[in-house]
Structures are given as structure tokens and as C-alpha cells.
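Page header: ASSEMBLY MODEL / two components / 486 residues total.
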Amino acid sequence: MTRKPMTSAKSFTTHSIRELLTGSVPLDSNVTIEGWVRTRRDSKAGLSFIQVNDGSCFGNLQVVANNELANYSSEVLHMTSGSAVRCSGVLVASQGRGQTHEIQATQVSLLGAVENPDSYPIQPKQHSFEFLREVAHLRPRTNTFGAMTRVRHAAAKAIHDYFDQHGYFWINTPLITASDAEGAGQMFRVSTLDLLNLPRNDAGGIDFREDFFGRETFLTVSGQLNVEAFCLAMSKVYTFGPTFRAENSNTTRHLAEFWMVEPEIAFADLNDLVALAEDFLKFVVRQVLERCGDDMAFFAERIEPAAITRLQQIIEQPFQRVSYTDAVQILIKSGKKFEFRPEWGIDLQTEHERFLTEQHFKAPLVVTDYPAAIKAFYMRSNDAAATSDDTVAGDTVAAMDVLAPGIGEIIGGAQREERLDVLQQRMQAMHIDAEHYDWYLDLRRYGTVPHAGFGLGFERLVSYITGMTNIRDVTPYPRVPGNASF
RNA sequence: UCCCCGGUAGCUCAGCUGGUUAGAGCGGGUGACUGUUAAUCACUAGGUCGUUGGUUCGAAUCCGACCCGGGGAGCCA
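Prediction written out in full:
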């Protein structure tokens, strides 16, 4: 992107630093850049080196400003970290080591000064992530969050590209909902009622007929049920949008507000879904590696040494696959002492998942066919319990989780129960009020077909890709219990 | 929600068997020096030791309560 500069400097064209560093602009061109000062080093020989970053790429551009500039001593020497500047000059090959290009400045303008340089929080040094969360509005100016932001963008773009190239339609499912979905967790209430003066019904409860929508409403915990309806018309669809969970979860992998990707495919079974998950993840990872080389190199150097190599392994290796029943057997036979003893019928604990992905398989792992009792009502009942030995296995459903080393569950999905009578039985058994799901049951009454889908936690994906271990550091403004700052 | 750990300068931390005036590095300011690379060197400013009670002649240091942050677990994506 090139454009005219905002000021009068004639024959200088404004460029992103990315353009200048990647060699798409010939040397000796007159150029202008706009950005924020990372560091400034002064030489009393009469020149200063200003490292400028504009977010367009990981690298800074070095601007060489000498004392012949009219504002050299009055402004240039006071351009501390964080100052906003516009620099014009000639793009040249750098005389010094450490960078290929630099600008010999003919004009350096201070657009926005840093009022209190001694208290500006972002210094050219390592900060703790805990501290940076307290200055979430300024942390985009750090290397780490610049890199994370570009990776996050590249991943989101890759997700849309993958589905677009494979004939999927992006469905914008509602964020406000009246159903409590699959009971996927605690929900945030949406209401315009006056909390200090609640309307009451005859039974003494709150009269939600007086509320904005005439009934109780919440923020969505999943777009899945809604997107299924479009799946059973458009064949291949997906959602990608914000999701809300009011769970009191205080961990490095939970947010109250996060983004979720939920593809849903018709005329498909669990095997098709597993194949999709693998192909999809590999595509996204490959795109990020191709587009964000500098950023990923930074994560590998400073955050997680294996950041790049483990992504390359994901691309190259086939995902491992194991049934829940076999996974439990592996855990039992491992002889390893777990805090929670592995047992058929109990959900895999974090320590179990970690053992399977990090020690046993040492790869992303797809676990399938979980006990029906611990899974949601809409998951398809398997016809027969599949076991690889003499273990007695109970009823299972065609569910699947993709577990990634270091992160745990990154994808959860299932083939959906398309048989009306089986679905109704299951809802009854799980005490789900069928009245709220009549429209959902309609999908089984009118032209039902086998279909399947999964949910991918977008932040968990970014966390896995970058090696950033706390999910609060891979989203711009994290919302967690007790904190909605910024 | 449960279990641990922590809160000292703008940042990262030391000091914590109670005892003159609470320290260092980085960052800021000033100066020296150099086509510099998180530059280097010197000087300098900067602190209600999370809040609040208590113990004590005396509390950053010991005890209680509260607030905030972090890690782990559960729930899940």
C-alpha cells in the first residue's frame, strides 16, 4: 500500500515498514514512514539512530537522523520510546550491521510526544506478561503482542480461506439466544429490566414477559444448533465469531469471551469430521508459517523453542487416532500413577490428556467414541460398543476431541444424532426440555441426513501456534472472572 | 469454586532469624564517548514497602482480615 503523505513533503511516498524491509521499494527512493519509536541511540558525532515500528511487520526500520535537521536538538534528541513520528528521507543500504535497510532522514517530525518518558510503561526490555495485562492498551507496542496480533490475523484469514476454498458458507449465528444451547455452561444474562425494580409474576418470580425480548435471553455459548439448520440446506457451513461462557474458570486456557470456529458438514459421519479437522488444522498452520516467518522466529527464540518445529511436525505427520475405550486402556496399562485413576465412564482428566499427547503418542491426538453419559444430548449414539479387548464398554457416542500437546483439548466435535426417535429418547433421558428445541427437532422431521461438526477454540489455536501459554495473552482484551478492564 | 505462591522505585527484582538514612539492574534526566545495535561510562532524580487492624520500645520484615495478581485443579473451546 502506498499513498500520499499527510504533509507537504513532495515526492516522498508513504510506505509501510514491511514494504521497505522486504525490498519492494528500490534503494535511493525518497520515502516516508510513520510509526512509533522503539529505541533511540545517540552518537555525539552528531547523529541519532531511531528504531521505528509501525506494526506492519516484526522488524523495525532504522532511521538515521543527523544534527543538521532543524529540530535535531529540540525534538529528535527527546524522541523516547513510544513517541509517534513521521520520517522522510532516502532509503539506502545500511552502513551498519544488524539491518539491511535504513533511511537517511531529511525530515523527522514528532507527531505525538510521550508526556512522561520516565513513567511510560513500555520500555525496550522484557516485561512480565502479568504486568502487560495491566496495560493492555499499550501492550500492542511490544514485540510479543505485535507478533501475536499478526499471527492471530493470519490464522483467522487462513480459517476463512480454507472454508472458502472448500465450498463452505460463513453463517453468522445469533449472539443473543433464548435457549441454553447444549447446556455447555453458565450463560450471561441479557436483559433490559431494571434490576432495582424487577417485574414479578404471580408465582413471585421475575416476569420476563416484561423484558426486551419478552422472554429470558442470554449470550450464546455456541452457534452449533443454529448452524445445523443452515448445514441441512447449504451442505457445508461454518461459524466464526464470539462466544460467551459465564463459568468461574480461572485457568490459562479459559476466557469468558472467546472466538470459536464451528464447521458443520452434511452427508458426513465421524470419519469425515476427523479428516476435516486434520486437513483444516494443517492448512491453517501452514499458512501461518508461510506468512509470519519473522513473528514465528521470534516466538521460537523468546517464547517456545519448539514453536516452529512442532508446527512443522503437525503439517508432516498424520494425526494419531484412538478410541476413548482404548485410550483408557493405554492409561491403565501405562502403570503411571495419576491423581485420578483412569476408569471407563469417567472423562479424561487434564493429566490423562497430557500423558496421551505428550508422552505416549507425542503428537496431536484424536480421541473418539466417548461414553454417552458424559457427552451432550445431540451427539449420535453408536450402534455397538467398540472395544479392542475384553473390556466391557458401555454406550458410546460418535464424539471426537483433538488434543494438542501442551494445550489439551483444542477441538471438540461429534457426528450429530439425525434420527428423530433416538434424539428424543436421549433428550428425555437427559431431562432436556424438548419444548425449547422443537425447531431443532424439525430438522430431523424434514429431510434429515447424517451430519457432523466441531468447535475450535480460536484463542487456544493461537496459543498453541505461538507457544504463548496463557490464553489471556493471545486475545487483545481478555475477559475473565473479576476482570473486564479496558 | 478449591489448593498453593506472590504484592518493595516507571519495569524486573534483592532486602524478610524485627534494629541507624530501604538497595541493584534496566528505564528517565544531565554530561562524556562512539555508524550505533536492548550501545558503553559517569553523575543524578525517583519509594505512604497492596490496604487495614494488631504484637512490639521499634515492623518492608511477625500475626489476622481484606483487596489485587500468578500457578495448579475442576468445568470446557
